[in-house]
């Protein structure tokens, strides 16, 4: 050991934590768990270490372990919305929807301006059939961030299910302005098909195919719409 070196357990724990993050980022989750555990063994009071390990456990679908680590992180720092959001997402994956909603509620109480929390809660509301509450949450997420197509796209899907086609099309048009994702075009085409506007649907599907020429599902949809158009002649 070099002269003058002073052991610092905080630095050592941080090193293990950083290694864990590196493993996590390349999806080596089991190795990430090992490194986060080493960090926790040195410092047992850092909530971020527990949350990081929870995320690694979550990625391994080791839900019970992930829940325990989230709960530990929350017990050490109760004012972090992202901790509750992570726990809510775990419960959502486990289909424990009441628990998931409770955690998203807590996240929103702590940080009411984070669109992801409303989006995640909206997803659960939709799953349990509370479409009015889901739409409220998607509206809130969009109002907080209307430049992320994920919020607009999800809302368009719910609006389509609710037969609010004009509103759904407006959201999809906004999505396309942000990112020309073929999925947005396909959904637009689907709405026009529901409305009986087969030519418009076909034109949009051809745009989607130009963006994704090898997509077999789009080719199949085009063939199906062409048959509908032909049958109307």
> How many E-type strands?
0
Considering DSSP H and I runs of 4 or more, what fraction of the residues is helical? over 70%
Q: Going by CATH, what is the homologous superfamily of the domain at 156-232?
A: Tetratricopeptide repeat domain
In CATH, the architecture of the domain at 156-232 is Alpha Horseshoe
Question: The biggest beta sheet, please?
Answer: none
The CATH C-level name of the domain at 156-232 is Mainly Alpha
Q: Please state the CA-atom Rg, rounded to the nearest Å.
A: 23 Å
Structural class computed from helices and strand pairing: mainly alpha
Shape: elongated
Mean of all residue-level pLDDT scores: 95
CATH topology of the domain at 156-232: Serine Threonine Protein Phosphatase 5, Tetratricopeptide repeat
Order of helices and strands: HHHHHHHHHHHHH
Number of helices: 13
- Distance between the amino and carboxyl termini: 88 Å
Please provide a written account of the structure.
The chain is built from 13 helices and no strands. It is 79% helix and 0% strand. Helix 4 (63-76) runs antiparallel to helix 5 (81-93) and helix 10 (165-178) packs antiparallel against helix 11 (182-194). It has a domain at 156-232: Tetratricopeptide repeat domain (Serine Threonine Protein Phosphatase 5, Tetratricopeptide repeat). It is mostly helical and 233 residues long. The model has no long low-confidence stretch (mean pLDDT 95).
């Amino acid at each position: 050991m070099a002269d003058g070196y002073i052991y610092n357990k905080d630095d050592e724990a941080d090193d293990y934590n950083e290694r864990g993050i590196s493993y996590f980022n390349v999806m080596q989750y089991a190795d990430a768990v090992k490194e986060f555990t080493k960090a926790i063994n040195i410092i047992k009071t850092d909530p971020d270490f527990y949350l990081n390990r929870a995320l690694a456990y979550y990625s391994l679908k080791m839900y019970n372990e992930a829940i325990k680590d989230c709960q530990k992180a929350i017990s050490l720092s109760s004012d972090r919305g992202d901790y509750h959001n992570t726990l809510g997402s775990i419960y959502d994956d486990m289909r424990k929807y009441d628990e998931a909603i409770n955690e998203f509620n807590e996240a929103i109480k702590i940080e009411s301006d984070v669109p992801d929390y409303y989006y995640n809660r909206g997803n659960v509301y939709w799953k349990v059939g509370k479409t009015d509450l889901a739409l409220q949450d998607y509206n809130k997420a969009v109002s907080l961030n209307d430049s992320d197509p994920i919020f607009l796209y999800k809302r368009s899907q719910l609006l389509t299910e609710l037969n609010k086609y004009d509103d759904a099309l407006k959201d999809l048009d906004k999505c396309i302005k942000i990112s020309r994702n073929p999925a947005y075009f396909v959904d637009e085409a689907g709405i026009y098909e529901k409305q009986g506007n087969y030519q418009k649907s076909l034109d949009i599907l051809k745009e989607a195919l130009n963006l994704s020429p090898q997509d077999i599902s789009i080719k199949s949809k085009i063939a199906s719409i062409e048959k509908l158009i032909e049958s109307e002649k």
